[in-house]
Write a structure and sequence with these properties.
With 92 residues, this protein is an all-beta fold. The protein has one domain. Strands 1, 2, 3, 4, 5, 6, 7 and 8 form an eight-stranded mixed beta sheet that branches. The chain is globular, with a radius of gyration of 13 Å.
C-alpha cells in the first residue's frame, strides 16, 4: 500500500452529517484545505476522516466533481473510501 503524503488534510467525523454510511457537509465549514493530493506517486485527491467514537482514520478519495448545479456553478464534490463510506461536500 502506498504511503500517504504528510500534509493530507484530516477532518473530524463530526464535521459531517451522517446518514448510515453517507456523510454530507458544506464546503464553507472547511476553513483550511478540504482535500489535497494523497500519494507522491499518484494523482488521487482526498482527505482523512477521524471517527470521534473509535478514533479510527479513514481515507477518502475524490470520485466525482466538481459537479455543476442548474446554473452551471460548482454544486458538489463526491468522495468515497475503500470501506464503503461516501461523502458529499456541497458548494454553498
Amino acid at each position: 500500500m502506498a504511503k500517504l503524503l504528510p500534509n493530507v488534510p484530516a477532518h473530524d467525523g463530526s464535521m459531517f452529517n451522517w446518514t448510515g454510511r453517507h456523510g454530507c457537509a458544506d464546503i464553507s465549514d472547511f476553513h483550511d484545505s478540504l482535500a489535497d493530493r494523497l500519494y507522491a506517486d499518484a494523482c488521487d485527491v482526498g482527505f482523512i476522516v477521524t471517527s470521534g467514537r473509535t478514533n479510527r482514520k479513514v481515507v477518502f478519495t475524490q470520485i466525482a466533481g466538481p459537479g455543476e448545479d442548474s446554473d452551471g456553478e460548482v454544486g458538489s464534490y463526491e468522495f468515497s473510501s475503500t470501506e464503503g463510506f461516501r461523502i458529499t461536500v456541497f458548494n454553498d
